[in-house]
Design a protein that fits this description.
The structure is a homodimer. Chain A has one domain: Divalent-metal-dependent TIM barrel enzymes (TIM Barrel). Chain A has eleven helices and ten strands. Chain A is globular. Chain A is of the alpha/beta class. Chain A has an eight-stranded parallel barrel, surrounded by six helices.
Chain lengths: 274, 274
């Protein structure tokens, strides 16, 4: 399988968290990347208006906004706040020209996961009209089961597909992230199912380092770990996905390094291992 | 649902790792626990002969030996060494009167999980005659997917059940551990399936703390986290399990505390939350 042209290479601003949006954009463009996924912290720091200007001049395609979600809550008021915040995220996405908001769906420690998923599904259903009006899609991103306590009650592509099927809206699909899903023996078949649903809205790559030094921020460059990234890409593409491939690498280690040099290593890892 | 009598309460020596086997046994008995699962490091430190004497005098029922497994390897020699080591574990179990060896099946970073599972299944098959002769059973313990890189390519009860079905030996069953499996939406139905296979050989409890401070050694006491321990116990019992309930709590924090006081807290947690 051949490597992916840089014209399909997208990077998440969180990957180079120490950089301002303006500096990030310049370095990504110099590296030859074609797309950018913007995290809300980067937007908040630069301000929406300035961000719009930076992104419009960047020559980079804005692929998505990360992230909405965190829907479940033990009381109605908090659930409404979450919905309001997600409507703001949708508006921000529309403002910067991002066609997609990625949803980290949320979980509450001690709330039964089934109940959390019910709340998640109801919340996404409630957002569909606003998303449609804004011309923005929503992607359910299943997270690794190690985040089932606080970050996502949706832990498999199967569960995300079930929701997509029931919500039955062209506005709602899934994000496949190799880090969260590589361990799953149903991954290939569930990716195929996402494809049949026309629901593969985005695809994230990085790698799983051994040993994992931090449960949150120790992602590896593609090729540094045990995830068969290229194989999973082949499944996603066989299922019809031909969009940008997004590099989302949280790493306490890499954030401490020179970010321009880091981006150059990312570029090589993309060419060699994706 | 009522609490479990202490006559079904078993504890793993690793839970009080700082204690010698002799000291552990005394404290467990004082707490009113009825069973003990012995880890091989405790055996190695005390020596088999002395361990046999300590356990015989303890009045505690030896529930299992932890742990065998770690089968997959990239070359034939290492796979043979793993089998030899597992035969020794079976012999040790027989020596101390443990009817069961729990298997942490293993994984090799970068080896496809499917290939690792093939090797695991072949290795268990190869051990069955030795286990039968020794009068020792083998339990496949699915581990949490966050350990799929190095500790276990078997990450769901579903996969363990599949193996049990194919191996079709009364010698081979599963261990259900709430920590490894609570996130799984198929857990209830797969526990029921294990029950139909007559294959629930053991049941481990602890809790999942939020935030998780260490990927290996930050397990909580039952009731300290988000796992519905009592609900999962009800599933296991509905599937026919009426054996000892084993407390297996690795914790850097708790190992630093006074172990007699810790055991007394474990006792309360067992009564209140299991």
């Amino acid at each position: 399988m051949s490597s992916v042209p840089l014209s399909r290479c997208c990077i998440h601003t969180i990957t180079t968290r120490p950089l301002s949006l303006a500096a990030a954009v310049e370095i990504y463009r110099d590296a030859g990347f074609a797309g950018i996924t913007v995290w809300r912290d980067a937007l908040a720091t630069a301000g929406i208006k300035e961000s719009v200007r930076i992104l419009a001049l960047s020559g980079l395609k804005v692929v998505s906004l990360c992230r909405g979600g965190f829907f479940p809550a033990t009381d109605e008021v908090d659930r409404r706040h979450a919905l309001d915040d997600n409507r703001r995220a949708i508006d921000e996405a529309a403002a910067i020209g991002a066609p997609l908001v990625v949803l980290v769906c949320g979980a509450v420690p001690g709330m039964p996961l089934r109940e959390a998923r019910k709340q998640i599904e109801a919340s996404i259903a409630a957002l569909i009209p606003h998303a449609r009006q804004a011309g923005v899609k929503l992607a359910i991103e299943p997270l690794h089961p190690m985040y089932a306590d606080t970050r996502s009650a949706v832990v498999t592509v199967s569960q995300a597909n079930d929701m997509v099927e029931r919500l039955a809206s062209p506005q709602v699909g899934v994000t496949i992230d190799v880090y969260h899903t590589w361990w799953d023996d149903r991954l290939e078949s569930e990716i195929a199912r996402s494809g049949r649903l026309g629901a593969i809205f985005s695809f994230h790559v990085c790698d799983w380092r051994t040993p994992l030094r931090d449960i949150l921020n120790d992602r590896g460059l593609m090729g540094e770990g045990c995830i068969p990234v290229r194989q999973i890409r082949s499944w996603v593409e066989r299922a019809g996905f031909d969009g940008m491939i997004e590099m989302e690498i949280f790493s306490n280690q890499y954030w401490q390094e020179n970010q321009r040099e880091f981006v150059s290593r990312i570029r090589s890892a993309f060419i060699e291992h994706v």
